[in-house]
């Protein structure tokens, strides 16, 4: 089915000037970028986005990293977009990511892991709405 998913290119990959290479991977896989914005997240915005991880030991480092520089936030649309984006990203820990995935090629560590992608339809809906109003999404 056609789905939408929320993708974030994290501060490490933005700093590496890898936005274009990562966008090319989305587009070559048939995912359309239907909304996008560059943002430097506030602490409050990052904490709210990752609220489900609030009690995890890595929460403070995660939030600190996500506000360390600008991020590129996009909504991707396409057939099975949620799973397709997760395949393109590879495992959360880049040491475990398959060769040729975004994290294998661009990520340094489980904290600085280049990209985020929604993990299920419910989180995709919540995460897209967290960053984009309906009129900011431009399906084609
Ligand atoms: P992301 O998909 O953005 O969702 C939560 C992030 O927390 C994850 O990517 C990692 O960058 C980061 N993180 C750090 N340590 C861990 C861990 N032990 N397990 C899961 N995520 C972690």
Task: Outline the secondary-structure elements.
Elements lengths: L1 E8 L1 H5 L3 H10 L3 E8 L3 H7 L9 H8 L4 E9 L1 H9 L12 H5 L8 E3 L3 H11 L9
Antiparallel strand pairs: 1-3, 1-4, 2-3
Task: Give a structural overview.
With 140 residues, this protein is of the alpha+beta class. It is built from 7 helices and 4 strands, in the order βααβααβααβα. Strands 2-3-1-4 form a 4-stranded antiparallel beta sheet. The site of adenosine-3',5'-cyclic-monophosphate has 8 residues, from loops. Adenosine-3',5'-cyclic-monophosphate (CMP) is lined by residues 53, 58, 62, 92, 110-111, 113, 116.
Bound molecules: adenosine-3',5'-cyclic-monophosphate
The SSE order reads EHHEHHEHHEH
The outline comes out as globular
Mean pLDDT: 98
Biggest sheet: strand arrangement: 2-3-1-4
Give the terminus-to-terminus CA distance: 16 Å
In short:
It is built from seven helices and four strands.
Which terms would index this structure?
alpha+beta; four-stranded antiparallel sheet; 7 helices; nucleoside diphosphate kinase activity
